[in-house]
Design goal:
Structural class: mainly beta
Strand content: over 45%
Pfam families: Pect-lyase_RHGA_epim (PF12708)
Largest sheet: 26 strands, parallel
Shape: globular
Protein name: Rhamnogalacturonase A/B/Epimerase-like pectate lyase domain-containing protein
CATH architecture: 3 Solenoid
Keywords: Signal
Organism: Chitinophaga varians
InterPro entries: GH28_Enzymes (IPR051801), Pectin_lyas_fold (IPR012334), Pectin_lyase_fold/virulence (IPR011050), RHGA/B-epi-like_pectate_lyase (IPR024535)
Number of strands: 30
Radius of gyration: 24 Å
Length: 416
Amino acid sequence: MLYQQRIVRRIILISMVMLCGIMSRAQHVTDVRAHGALADGKTDDSRAFQRAIVQAQKNGTRKIFVPKGHYLIARPIKLPSYFTLEASPDAYIELKPSCNQYLLQNEDLVNGNAHIKVTGGKWNGNGWTQTRTMRSTVDSSDFCFGMLFYKVRRLEVGNLQIDSTRSWGIAYMECDTVHIHDIRFQQNPFRDTRQNSALMQNGDGVTGGGNHVLIENISGFTNDDLVAFAAGGASFQGKMSPFPAVDYHDVTVRNINPENIYDSIPALKAVAFYTFENRKVSNIMIEKVHGNTAMASVLFYSLFGKTGYFSGVTIRDVSGANVYGRSTQPQLPVVYGIISVKQSVMDRLDISQVSREEDRYANPQFLFDENTVIDSLNINQVDIRHRHIQGNLLLQSAGAVIKNSRINGVSIQNRE
């Protein structure tokens, strides 16, 4: 009996010590307001963010909290390894106009970092005021991304909104084990104060390259691709950035919902995969892509006239049509299919559960250009409905080499 009482007392003591430790860590939640952030939308709070990060490293929590408020920053928030930034849903973090910086980045852009998490808040990059500069190295360039993560191992970004960045909203390059989820974009559709369209100005939502990548639950408007994946490299209006071209594998993109903004301008593309310098991306899953676009719902493209390689590609549950008809870009809806492959070699492409409500354009559902080679193509369950449109609404593949194909369950109907 005495032995049992000792055991019980020891368990109680251990529990109390653990609880005290938990309470102690909770008391050390590092609030940026406590380190000088005014959150008045006028004062530069950049230094307060970095002071909070240094303190969180010292007290061992390795986490900062951004409460409700309007934070103006003129320099990027730099996160070290094994670190979390958590923002309130009511926190608004704004990049100072014309400062030509990132909103946030990992601390070491040369060697990389590990275990970084960013969650919450609404982030605004004041995109049309920023000027982007590319130099010979990643760490010396000013790309004006919203968030840049370079060579990060184990990265999570989620539950936040990003508005109006000069380049991509969230960029991750040469990363490993990435989860980006529950992001809403409202990129600025204009490139200047005169409200000239910024469509096709590299205003992507999520863009990057890495292994073991999961991108899910992404919605909103972007000037270019809502979600893009690049086999290393990256281009801005035809110019190559200093990111190297690399082979990648194991990429899943799901629950992607492009939307219109303001005067019915749609996102340019929903999901796009690119290769550079003859590189390869393997084991790709794209599913549940729903929403209209200006150019394509899903695109595979190898740029600059060089063949790229994609292996083990599955696309399923895609719906959407072309809705962009402005005179300034009349070619967009007619030079791409809703699902397109250009300048690429694939060993296997499986497509299923595709639907489309088309009211304007007689472009094909599937387009494979003359530089495409596919060893095995399987298309299943296609439902296309249109309103008195004459033309090829299904498949265009003149010049493409498709060695083996199987197409089942196709329905094309005219809606009265």
